[in-house]
Amino acid sequence: MTILNLNRVVEQTLVLNSNLLRISRVTVEKALDRNLPDIVGSADQIQQGFVNLISNAVEAMEGSGGGTLTVTTGHISREGKVMVRFKDTGKGIAKENLARIFEPFFTTKKEKKGVGLGLSVVYGIIEEHGGSIHVESREGEGSIFTVELPLKHPSDPQPGNGGAHEH
Ligand SMILES: Nc1ncnc2c1ncn2[C@@H]1O[C@H](COP(=O)(O)OP(=O)(O)OP(=O)(O)O)[C@@H](O)[C@H]1O
Ligand SMILES: [Mg+2]
Question: Which residue, 5, 6, 67, 94, is the most exposed by fewest CB within 10 angstroms?
Fold first, then answer.
């Protein structure tokens, strides 16, 4: 667990996937909040989660020969959270599958292409950080995955009154 900035993790993840994105003809658009506050967490784990979300987006756009991946970050100050949103222009998710996509081994991909673990791993990582993930999608119209993470990790020591006494 370290102090990290999600913009940096996003940038690093995009560099790591730049070949895949180029070969798959995916244009990346970034709308990163330059004043995004730091959070406490595992950069490696969060990066792994972003890799899984990007892989899914790329796979969803394969059938149409590419598309646009828009990555947005933002600060929800009133809730003490930051958010990262991955929006793709892929084939979208059928309504009847929406409730199941985070289940381990749920996949709609052909044999050998998908194991169905990507999103369950993402879910576990986000949960471990005290955050949440939700999806908006319509078949044929693309998908939006929004991750919200608290500024403070749940395992952080809670701020006490530091021994100061008020009388
Ligand atoms: N961006 C997306 N666009 C369309 N469908 C998606 C997207 N992300 C996930 N899905 C759907 O959710 C299912 C589960 O995703 P998940 O990443 O868990 O498994 P997978 O991609 O099928 O396999 P794996 O990640 O193990 O290679 C996918 O099979 C697909 O039907
Ligand atoms: Mg996947």
Answer: 94
